[in-house]
Amino acid sequence: MEIYDYIIMPNHVHFICEIKIKKEIDALPANQIIPSVVGTLKKLINKECKEKIWQRNYYEHIIRDEKEYLEILQYIQDNPYKWIEDKYYL
Hints:
2 helices; alpha+beta; 2 strands
């Protein structure tokens, strides 16, 4: 997995990554690969933190072209400036 951009917010995280598929799992659909990768990432970070820090669900979006990539990248980069509007802002 290669992470291209990310932002860590007080109550959530956003990132853009590319999941590099090995030939033996290339035939698996994204709805099986993505949960496996996200689950492994959560498990490794929980282990490092020595506690569970992740919410149960997550949202993913498969980026299909450069226009989508640039829109999502802009959303991630703008996210800290919108934190004051978040319902969990203290």
